[in-house]
Amino acid sequence: MGVKKYHVYGLGNALVDTEIQVSDTDLSRLKIEKGLMTLVDEERLTFLINSLEDHLTLSKRACGGSAANTIIALSQFGGSGYMACKVADDDNGRFYLQDLIANGVDHSGSEQLESGITGKCLVMVTPDAERTMNSYLGIGQQLSPDDIDVTAICDSEYVYIEGYLVTSPTGRAAAIKAREVAEQNSVKVAMSLSDPGIVEHFKEGLKDIIGQGVDLLFCNKQEALSWCETDDLNAAIAVLQKTAKQFAITLGDEGAIIFDGFNVQRTAGQPVTAVDTNGAGDMFAGAYLFSLTQGKTSMDAAIFANRAASAVVGQYGPRLHSSEYNGLKIA
Asked: How far apart are CA 320 and CA 329, in angstroms?
């Protein structure tokens, strides 16, 4: 078998991120549920942005969405990535695709973009470094099986699916098609459970996406416990082995638990003063996938991914400066 063009083919909601600093009082006043991703309509998002327009902006506008953050991290570490997404023919949509290209990521955005509104995400960071997201998917919720590039999947080592796609019927169908195409062509499937609220409210849809099981699953402790319907992490680890051939459970500053298909292992966390947890899980997945596609073991991948995630929570925004990626590889 020849060398594949892409290490990872990503699939997810295209969102242009705006990140601001807020207080717990702001969240309470505006009736925003802390620590979760909440889908809102455009009217609600505009109201929130206007209500918080005097707040400090923490990082510049960036193309985002969970899978995009992961694929960009992979690309910045030196991997080759592709992003399947849907944006509109507006300023944010054109910016989004240009930002992907600037980060070395190929994409499915066509020359003839459709009219509409590109998805937007308001990322609100509280003083305890917790991130809370309110997202308007816009045209992104129309991502469908038609947007899946079968040729690009076949030319990839992994397909990476973000769990957030489960909220849209067509997005869920696109994710299922991507998984099925990958399975039929011996391409590995990786997936993230994305958010505790997603697991809680969309479990049946996530099961449809996962099918008979994926090759690699990413989740945090809360998502793992919710998915496995238990408050015992050891019990969850046993159940997850039926969901995925391999998995990684992130534990924040306590490191991660990984299952490499044979053994359950634990990696220590990296000491860091967290200022913003936005993008930590996405960065972990990007670094982990990069390591695996470079022939590293799951344990080595987890150690590297922990280091990368701790670097990103020590600053604002889901990305590192381009010079920092190589520094992490050398460390």
From this structure: 13
